[in-house]
Amino acid sequence: MARCCLVSILLLACFASTTEGRRISKKAAVAVDAQEPTVAELQQQLDDARRESALAQAELRNRRASDGDGDINLKGADADRIVNMVLDNIRLGDDPKGPLIPALVPKPGQVFEVMNREALDFIESNAYHWNMVSINENGRVVYPDKWFAEIDGSFFGNTMGWKTTHVMNNRRERLFTIHMTKHMWNPTRWTWSFRIAHPVTDKVLFTINKDWFGGGWFMMRDEWRVYRGHKGDNDQVYYCVSSYIGYEHWCYANKHEWNNGREPRATFSQSMARDLIGLPDKSSLTVREGEDTGLLLATTVIMDMVYEQEEANERAADMNEERRRQQEQKRRHGGSHP
């Protein structure tokens, strides 16, 4: 029954924009019933989810430690060697045609799982941390669970400026800068467009754009494109497409790969906790061998900033509409409340 309701709501969203469709889909996924849960019920759901997560993690650790036919949990000197080769060399690449951070490109036979987590603050400053969750090397898995970079921003820059953020490694060396192509209040800004720039020269290294129209049925799947340099250079590196609900993204070299059912080069999964109970955003990214993990992580940060701003714009529009409605009621009733 719940699945049928969800499908019905998604079909009705054909008359909405891609952003509105994402909002409706989120509401459908969070609460199929019309009755919203109370704070106590949400807290109980969170406690239950934490217990289930702890049990699942314990079961996963037991399975990884077993001597079965699955992946081998690598420890000791071999594990340290694999981890140190990556995390000790987090710096900006100098090849204009190469990856953003060479050390974060999985070698042949490797798969990286990384986490992008928003810092806990109350002023929406766009601060994040990047964590290396696991490195799978031909079935031998290392679980470093170590932070290797952080992103700082500011409240005023996020809400009224260029949404500028600076990415730094653990040695506090600035790796690159993320900022909007045009100012938030620029009247000629029609789409979401961001640039990744050199921390010293400000040279544009990559451009990340969100398509005006989405893909899939009723154009409800957000589409993102990543270009080396400027878009006009016509050097597309990645094409990323969202699920209909919006919490999953799959990244390919181009849209042709997606249309032909090719295996994605990276998978991005976003937590629903922010929309459910307002927790800081947390997402995971799985990256196949040869792909640019640093660039893909930067893209997930941009996605999160855009979705946060779109939701803030929707809330502001709802508040303005409610204020207009109340003023209209007062006018009709001669200045008295209805």
**Count of alpha/pi helices:** 8
User: What share of residues are in beta strands?
Assistant: 15-25%
Overall geometric form? globular
- Output the radius of gyration: 22 Å
Number of DSSP-assigned strands = 14
What is the H/E order? HHHEHEEEEHEEEEEEEHEHEH
How many discrete structural domains?
A: 1
Structure, briefly:
The chain is α+β, with helices and mostly antiparallel strands.
Q: Could you walk me through the main structural features you see in this protein, from its secondary elements to its overall organization?
A:
There is one protein chain. The chain has 338 residues and is of the alpha+beta class. The protein has one domain: LURP1-related (Porin, Beta Barrel). It is 35% helix and 25% strand. It has helices at 2-12, 18-30, 39-65, 76-87, 155-160, 255-259, 273-277, 293-332; strands at 72-73, 110-118, 128-137, 140-142, 146-152, 165-169, 174-180, 193-197, 204-210, 223-228, 236-242, 248-252, 266-270, 282-287. Strands 2-3-5-6-7-8-9-10-11-12-13-14 form a twelve-stranded antiparallel beta barrel. β3 and β4 form a beta hairpin. α1 (2-12) packs antiparallel against α2. The chain is globular. The two termini are 39 Å apart. 28% of the residues are buried. The model is unreliable at 1-36 and 63-69 (pLDDT under 50).
Topology:
Elements: H1 2-12, H2 18-30, H3 39-65, E1 72-73, H4 76-87, E2 110-118, E3 128-137, E4 140-142, E5 146-152, H5 155-160, E6 165-169, E7 174-180, E8 193-197, E9 204-210, E10 223-228, E11 236-242, E12 248-252, H6 255-259, E13 266-270, H7 273-277, E14 282-287, H8 293-332
Parallel strand pairs: 1-4
Antiparallel strand pairs: 2-3, 2-14, 3-4, 3-5, 5-6, 6-7, 7-8, 8-9, 9-10, 10-11, 11-12, 12-13, 13-14
Helix pairs in contact: 1-2
